[in-house]
Design goal:
Number of helices: 6
Mean pLDDT: 91
Low-confidence stretches: 219-233
CATH topology of the largest domain: Helicase, Ruva Protein, domain 3
Shape: elongated
Distance between the termini: 31 Å
Largest sheet: 4 strands, antiparallel
Strand order of the largest sheet: 1-6-7-5
Strand content: 15-25%
Order of helices and strands: HEHEEEEEEEHHHHEE
Length: 274
């Protein structure tokens, strides 16, 4: 599933080519995404508008115009690429945003869990965005913040940092990796982690996300960036997907457990439950 680094990689890839362009057409081949694509509204209200900015909020991409904002989500297996409008669409190429100059943004979404939505209000007031926590790479996110939000919480620390109301964009891969770097067992109750250790965890989350963005994200199955290229951060993963392999820190075996139906990888020697 595309997580924050993959979405940020996509944003950085398409922004220079999209910003300042005028939308000339909206083609919806299949409106049956996670929520129905508002085809008529997009063709009526988005066409003719100039894209002033391309930003990201959590795992959502926002294309802002004077009339409103297009909200895009890549779902479980989606990708957003810049292609020539004349390029024949493939089976799962569901939506095209045609731009002046002959190029278009093409959403490919085999599982159709993605989203293409439109709002004429401020995007941060949209129901999908208004309750989101702070950005993990922003100034408002640090160990003191996590410590304060965790008081009295019995939920496992991994689920806690993956809660988008606590902090956005820390998906399963990066939660595993950050907890390993911070030396925190993923099953530890969030309320039992000290302020000092939360400082280490916040720093680890930032480090992992920055490194992943620098490598173009992680491609385990379907992800490609705006140019159709895969991400390479999977080559730097310490624990995720490496059950039974040697821990890069101590040499012990990496373990795999399930938490909330998600795979959790950790080193029981380096990440002692306290």
């Amino acid at each position: 599933m595309p997580e924050l680094p993959e979405v940020e990689t996509t944003r950085r890839g398409i922004a220079p080519h999209v910003t300042g362009r005028v939308v000339r057409a909206v083609v919806v081949r299949d409106a049956r995404l996670r929520w129905p694509v508002p085809t008529a509204r997009l063709q009526r209200e988005l066409v003719g508008q100039r894209i002033d900015d391309v930003t990201r909020r959590g795992k959502y991409l926002l294309l802002t115009t004077n009339a409103g904002a297009l909200i895009l989500h890549l779902g479980m297996s989606g990708s957003l690429r810049l292609v020539n409008c004349g390029e024949p669409p493939l089976k799962h190429d569901h939506v095209d945003i045609g731009l002046d100059g002959g190029q278009c943004l093409r959403l490919r979404d085999p599982r159709r869990f993605g989203a293409v939505l439109w709002t004429t209000r401020s995007a941060d007031k949209h129901s999908l965005l208004k309750s989101l926590g702070p950005e993990p790479l922003g100034e408002g996110f640090d160990g003191d913040y996590l410590h304060q939000r965790s008081r009295g919480r019995r939920v496992a620390i991994k689920a806690f940092i993956m809660d988008s109301k606590v902090v956005v964009g820390v998906g399963n891969i990066y939660a595993n990796e950050a907890l390993f770097l911070a030396g925190i067992h993923p099953s530890t109750a969030a309320g039992r982690v000290s302020r000092a250790r939360y400082g280490q965890l916040a720093a680890a989350i930032k480090q992992v996300l920055h490194e992943a963005i620098g490598q173009g994200g992680t491609t385990l199955r379907d992800f490609v960036n705006g140019e159709g290229k895969p991400g390479y951060f999977q080559q730097r993963l310490n624990v995720y997907g490496r059950a039974g392999e040697a821990c890069p820190r101590c040499g012990g075996a990496i373990h795999l457990i399930r938490q909330g139906q998600r795979a959790t990888y950790f080193c029981p020697q380096c990440q002692i439950k306290k």
